[in-house]
Structures are given as C-alpha cells and as structure tokens.
Amino acid sequence: MEREEIFQYVKEQYGTEPEYLWKKDPDSAVLRHKNGKWYAIIMAVEKKTLGLEEDGKINILDVKCDPDLVGMIIQTYGFLPGYHMNKRHWITILLDDSVSEAKTLDFLDMSYDLIDSGK
C-alpha cells in the first residue's frame, strides 16, 4: 500500500491530514486523532535499521496495537515491533506489499479506535 493511498483513506475516514513535524526528516508524517494524540506515523527508514538484509530505504507505517496481539502479529512477515515507539503497544507495518491493503487498513482503524478509547 502506498503512502498516498493511506493519506487518502484517513482523510475520507477520519478527516485526518498528515502533519510533517521534523525538519531533519521532511517525508515523515504523523496522523493525529481528533483528540490530539498520534494514531499512526509514516516514514521511510533504512532497511538495515529494521533488521532487514537488503540495502536502501523502505516506507513503514507505525500504528498502535492491542498489547495482547503484538507478540503474535510480529511473528508474521511484514510486521515488526514498533520502530521508535513503545514495542508493547505499537507495531510497524512494512509498506512493500507484503501486507494486504485490507489488513493494513484494519490495523490503522484499530489504532484510531485504541487512541479514541484511551487504551
């Protein structure tokens, strides 16, 4: 799934616009819930930083996840512990088509709902 497709989805679903907060990383975007809390981050990171063997950068999506599911989910290819986030509550989804669009959007919706409920 492409970044632009995610941005289009969250705009239609939640009225969210990406926020670009970091001058040193101008392509990284935060998606903020209407309550002000982050529910997703999209960024490009070096593959080796994530423990992947290839060189180059990859787009990733960090989303909040039910802590009871994290251990199981990160056993599946395309999912990793949350990059630069609390690894008990956040997961990283590789945006390289290894995770289906439907599954990516399901996790994005879960993250939005978890932020909404304050869990």
UniProtKB/TrEMBL annotation:
Look up the domain of life of the source.
Bacteria
Matching PANTHER family: CYTOPLASMIC PROTEIN (PTHR35145:SF1), CYTOPLASMIC PROTEIN-RELATED (PTHR35145)
Taxonomy-wise, where does this protein's organism fall, top ranks first?
Answer: Bacteria, Bacillati, Bacillota, Clostridia, Lachnospirales
UniProt cross-references to SUPFAM superfamilies, sorted A to Z:
YjbR-like (SSF142906)
Which is one GO molecular function term here? DNA binding
Q: Which organism is it from?
A: Blautia aquisgranensis
Q: Tell me which UniProt keywords the record has, alphabetically.
A: DNA-binding
What's the protein here called?
MmcQ/YjbR family DNA-binding protein
